[in-house]
Amino acid sequence: MTDKIEKRLAEMGVTIPAAAAPAANYVPFMQSGNLLLTAGQLPLKDGKLAVSGLLGRDVDVAAGKEAAKYCAINILAQVKAALGSLDRIGKLVKITVFVASDASFNEQHLVANGASDFLAEALGDKGKHARSAVGVASLPLNASVEIEAIVEVA
User: Fold this and answer.
1) What is the pLDDT of residues 112-129, one digit of tens each?
2) Among 80, 81, 88, 96, which has the highest number of CB atoms less than 10 A from its own CB?
3) Is 137 exposed, middle or buried (0-12, 13-18, 19+ CB in 10 A)?
4) Vertex 70 angle, CA 61 and 44, to 5°
5) DSSP tag of 76
6) Residues in domain Endoribonuclease L-PSP/chorismate mutase-like (predicted)?
7) CA triplet 127, 52, 25: central angle to 5 degrees?
């Protein structure tokens, strides 16, 4: 394993899975110039949805943060599929975190920390990013969280 980022991930106990295939008529990533944009990634673990339901009703913040981490891992899987190596990441520019939320839930930012904290640890300074955390009524397949990313390619 020669990739520095994958070595760091292994030390964190994380293995990057194969990138998930699109579930509809879209591509999982698109590069334009030196920017790579990912399609929204769900909290899949071992090919199955790991966390489902609404935050504030069915899911607590801790489980939501774990879902966000799984989304971030799947973002890295798409980046690796696109670039061949995670070491080609120049920096993570921005993530947008969609949190399926009960109408009274207002801690989307805490859920998003599950992804932000993981990405900062995994990528170091390259992983510091701008972010939006948005509450939504529902997500595909009843997922609790979906995240998309913009990555600068080195």
Assistant:
1) 999 999 999 999 999 999
2) 80
3) exposed
4) 110
5) H
6) 6-145
7) 75
Pairing label, strands 130-136, 89-100: parallel
Number of Cβ atoms within 10 Å of the Cβ of 50: 18
d(CA 4, CA 68): 23
CA dihedral 42, 86, 126, 99 (to 10 degrees): 0
- Sign of torsion over alpha carbons 101, 120, 131, 152: negative
**CA separation, residue 37 to residues 6, 64, 110 (Å):** 20, 23, 24
Using pLDDT thresholds of 50, 70 and 90, give the confidence band for residue 1.
Answer: very low
Per the DSSP assignment, residues forming a β-bridge with 29 are 38
